[in-house]
TrEMBL record:
InterPro entries: GTP-CH-I_C/QueF (IPR043133), GTP-CH-I_N (IPR043134), GTP_CycHdrlase_I (IPR001474), GTP_CycHdrlase_I_CS (IPR018234), GTP_CycHdrlase_I_dom (IPR020602). GO terms for biological process: folic acid biosynthetic process; tetrahydrobiopterin biosynthetic process; tetrahydrofolate biosynthetic process. It comes from Microbotryum silenes-dioicae. GO terms for cellular component: cytoplasm. It comes from the Eukaryota. This is GTP cyclohydrolase 1. Pathway: Cofactor biosynthesis; 7,8-dihydroneopterin triphosphate biosynthesis; 7,8-dihydroneopterin triphosphate from GTP: step 1/1. Its EC number is 3.5.4.16. GTP cyclohydrolase 1 is the first enzyme in the biosynthetic pathway leading to folic acid. Transmembrane segments: none annotated.
Length: 256
């Protein structure tokens, strides 16, 4: 059993290959780390620690403060927050917004847990068409998916380097970063760099395809316009052939 670290917190990499697999512990606070914090939060915002360390009383106070702000918002747009249909809206929206941004309250070590396994598999591992939901940080309206559902669609691939990550954890990492105020470009990079930081694979590739409500319901009002972003690290960035194989696999049979 091998121990590894994220943000100074350790967890295990199980099933050592031939009893001799080695793994350099990763620590989010090391120089040049793509996860520059010692709490395993991954690109924390100014208020992230305050939220994640809140007591139950502080959490309730935060929710009430947000509800009061929503009440003010309703008044500012010309509504009556005391009318029947809106009486509970501030509290409902406060709870909904905190849930939609729950990624701020999740630590990556807790997301990954003990799901790093020693394994000699050296071929590409891909999980595609992961549905995630996010909010644009510019207008706080949703990213809405383009390909197979009403969600953003994320495809993730990596080439192991003696260690693999539990498949569900790829989706969980994507979920953690998407449940924050985001821009699609940064979300794509954060998912890739978090996986790279966690298991040091030979390469990581992430592609996201989505439509943005800030382009469809306001502004230029262009429904159906899709935004595609990619992040290619390691072998996927260096090798045209490797990158092409990944892109071919995530597109295969999608029409069916």
């Amino acid at each position: 059993m091998h121990q590894t670290h994220l943000g100074g917190r350790s967890f295990s990499a199980a099933g050592a290959v031939g009893g001799g697999a080695s793994f350099e512990p990763f620590v989010g606070s090391r120089v040049g780390s793509p996860i520059p914090d010692t709490n395993g939060l991954g690109w924390p915002g100014k208020g992230t620690l305050a939220r994640i360390n809140s007591t139950p009383a502080e959490t309730l106070a935060r929710e009430q403060k947000l509800a009061d702000a929503v009440r003010t918002l309703l008044e500012c747009i010309g509504e009556d927050p005391d009318r029947e249909g809106l009486k509970k809206t501030p509290e409902r929206y406060a709870k909904a917004l905190l849930w939609m941004t729950k990624g701020y309250a999740e630590r990556l070590p807790d997301v990954i847990g003990n799901a790093i396994f020693a394994e000699d598999h050296e071929e590409m591992v891909i999980v595609r068409d992961i549905d995630v939901y996010s909010l644009c940080e510019h207008h706080m309206v949703p990213f809405v998916g383009k390909v197979s559902s009403e969600a953003d669609v994320v495809s993730i691939g990596y080439i192991p380097n003696k260690f693999v990550l539990g498949l569900s954890k790829l989706a969980r990492i994507a979920e953690t970063f998407s449940r924050r105020l985001q821009v699609q470009e940064r979300l794509t990079k954060q998912i890739a760099m978090a996986i790279d930081e966690a298991i040091r694979p030979m390469g990581v590739a992430v592609v996201i395809e989505a439509t943005h409500q800030c382009m469809t319901m306001r502004g230029v009002q262009k429904p159906g316009a899709a935004t595609i972003t990619s992040a290619m690290l390691g072998a996927f960035r260096r090798s045209d052939k490797t990158r092409a194989e990944f892109l071919s696999l995530i597109r295969s049979q999608r029409a069916t």
